Amino acid sequence: MGFEKRVCVLKQVKKGFSADGGALSGAVYVERLGEELTVMPRLLGVAPVREGRYALALSVGGEIFVVELKGSSSLRIPKAPSLKDGFAALLVFLKGEAEAVAFGSCGLAEADYHTLLAAFSGKSRPAVPLPPTELPTFSPNNVPRAPMPPLPEEEPAEEPFREEGAYDDEAIAEADYYQGDGDDETAGGGNAAEEKDAREDAAHPFLFGAGSLTYYRSVRQKLEEAFRKFEKDERLLGVFPASEWVKADGVLLGVIYESGKPKYLCVAAEEGLPEEMKPHACFVPTTPFSDMVGLYVVFQSADTGEYVTVADL
């Protein structure tokens, strides 16, 4: 039972479908085990829709397959041709006439999306069923989260009665007993930038999830120094438009942003990644014309510093 794996980079075809108004991009990873095809779309910045729906059309070995897009969930096609000659993928918005949103191809696959788009026209248009009570959803990593409805405020808990002067082991001391004689300036706001970031995170708890950026802040000073010192590199900007990269000591250091906030801290290289990072690396093509030219990229959460796999992006 043979195993094949291919990836193609998606490029925006039509504007108006990104969550932040910027350029939409992403990649489609396809694996074939036996005759079964597993499709893993990874889309960046796709806007959610209340009317209409998204579908993904694939061209593999001369055959065209259409599947309903379910966020970043893996999609399965039971029987499909070999991936030896590559494949092409087209993201389509369906509401009335089909509209091409993003397209990519790899290997010897046709580099024109019109053939795939034609599969949605007229009587030959495949049905893409959708449960009547459910709209397509996208991963929280791809689009901003919607604010939660207001909840009723809880009644304040009644404090137990204490006699005046009684000992209270839960009382908060007004003085900081761990603060040294020379710590007054630091405690009084020595790092205004971090305090400002913390206030912004508190003001947007749903937009940025946990929003702590704890790991990013712990290495922020070193990152800023590296971005001032080393030469900028633009090879990955086509895949991650909202990002910045510099080449330092043979590897690339990068930050990928979401809604203006650091989302992932990255290390990338053609080869020579640190040993502890290699198991977490993902190959990312840097050109839509070949899936063999690219960089191995490691993603770390800006909140926790934990490694992030491709399936979590």
List descriptors.
single chain; 313 residues; mainly beta; Immunoglobulin-like; 2 domains; 8-stranded antiparallel sheet; 4 helices
What does this entry look like structurally?
By secondary structure, the chain is mostly beta strands. It has 2 domains: 3-124, Immunoglobulin-like (Sandwich); 214-312, no CATH class. 12% of the residues lie in helices and 34% in strands. The chain has 4 helices and 15 strands. It has helices at 114-118, 184-187, 192-203, 214-229, and strands spanning 3-12, 25-33, 36-44, 53-60, 63-68, 75-77, 87-94, 99-105, 231-232, 243-248, 251-258, 261-269, 282-287, 290-301, 307-308. An 8-stranded antiparallel beta sheet has the order 5-4-7-8-1-2-3-6, with no helix packed on it. The radius of gyration is 25 Å and the shape is globular. Residues 123-149, 169-190 and 200-209 have low confidence and may be disordered.
